[in-house]
Amino acid sequence: MMVIQHSSLSQTIDILLNWCADNDILIDPRLQVRGDDDGAIGVYSNDICVIDPGTSLVHIRKSSVLSARSCCLSEYMPHIFSGPESQLTLSLALYTEMLNARSSRWFGYLQSLPSHTVDLPLFWGHGSSMDDTSHDRDAALKWLKGTEVERCLQRQPGLSLEAINSYYTDVAEPLIKQRGLSSIPNLKGFHRAFSLVSSRAFLVDAYHGLSMVPIADAFNHSLENQVHLETEFNVCSQCGSFEECPHDDDDDSGDPSSKNIHSPVNLHAMPRQDTIHSGLMDFDAYYEMVSNAPILPGSEVFNTYGETLTNAQLLCQYGFVVSFNENDHISWDLADVYQSFTNTSVKHSLTLSGLEAGYATVLRNLVFHGVFARLSESSLVYRHSEAPHSDLCLDGDGKISHQLWVALAFPFCVEGNGDNSSQESFDVISVLDKLKALFELQLAVEWQVEIGVASGDSSRRHCGNPTASRLVRLAELVISLCSQRKNSLGAHVSGHAAELDLNAILDAVPHDMHRTRDILNMVITERSILDSCESSWKELSAAVFL
Ligand SMILES: C[S@@+](CC[C@H](N)C(=O)[O-])C[C@H]1O[C@@H](n2cnc3c(N)ncnc32)[C@H](O)[C@@H]1O
Fold this sequence. Notes:
The protein is an alpha+beta fold. It is 40% helix and 11% strand. Helix 5 crosses helix 8, helix 10 (352-369) crosses helix 12 (428-451) and helix 12 (428-451) crosses helix 14. Residues 40-42, 118, 199-200, 217-218, 220-222, 318-320, 322 line the site of S-adenosylmethionine. This is Ribosomal lysine N-methyltransferase 3. Residues 29-306 form the SET domain.
């Protein structure tokens, strides 16, 4: 195993920067790579002037990135570019170089990486029960039940601890032992490599795929960010060529547009100001970190690891959370929604597959039918366009996504369509008409609530109206979905999170139990989102007056 011989973070950074110079990684002199008191690295502006957007600040020679293509065991590795397997393959690539220690051509870079396994929830259940963090880990694991963190962990079965351990035993260890690297491998070391890949890797192009990119990975994350990595993804997947190459003929797709199209990832339409090199430079040989916002003198320069990442996603992949995250939301899948029907008095005759098929059909036809033409007028439903994991969610204000609204309202609107209501075929137009009428009525009632006319003649006109009855049942479902979720938060803990004074519990947790504190803060956020949604729909339901 590699032993770091340096005595301080600044020495580590010096070694890194010397290695960068030797490996043709060019950093604008107005940037400074610096350590902080916690031993972490960040990038800062050390200029006295603002650095303009569109400035190319770091050039990273493509051959300097560490990937399954470039590592010492490359010829024995599959080249997989996406999905869980690409993370495992890159972990193996990184681990082999870590085992090579000083003889690795990335030693100067590797010695600058965190020397411990990044603290991902994935590993919390499997640390030593003897160490002084075990109490914190155990408490955090109990509180994360039913939260978005648990859902994040479950969403990637291919990257569960069991899957990682099996990959190590079945693939990584045998290959490393067979090739006889300088150090003996062990599972703990592989976990560290995996955690570094999870928290630092970039998908750069069709040749290197997921890669460790020195210096690009020294920037910390913020939603208010100033730089991003720019790469040309569509290079030749066999030789990395940006130009025409002999492998072009190997592409038998017959689609000429699939060959060597150089559409950049993260392209910002700004004039480029290359300040590093005044002479001739082969730009195709580099990836670049480019500014996308003004960088103030002396400030830290941030990248974003994803514009839509929630705290649960940040914690699971990168091991940290931010204090206020506007992306935080609560998600369900269709099976959860279906389950909620059976937990209420709402009668329906749908099967889960009927709901899945109906939901998909309705979503495809929504726009043409204008169901949500007046969506912007609603204070309870929002248009959810980004769907990295789930469409069925509540946003940070407790509004439901239009997809969740459809999934919940569909059973009431499909009933009465003959015997097909439990089948996968139904009269689409009739269902869309009912959904539209339902949403229009909801807007009218929302308006009544807003102006304070929650009783009186205007609402009595809903009496006996089947659309009004659907609206009440929809509200019942939303309320039930929220309360079920609240009851499942920290489900193990004596008493449901829904009833506990979570702020008092948080106050009593010592500050060094940061995992428990982070998770409790998330439980508090999730409960307040659910409370807010539940109370608005109760108010709406009370205003319908059947
Ligand atoms: C790509 S690295 C960034 C460089 C890193 N600070 C280092 O010392 O090498 C990602 C890691 O930096 C830390 N990090 C990045 N952004 C952060 C933020 N906004 N708050 C707290 N930690 C952050 C986390 O530990 C994360 O796993």
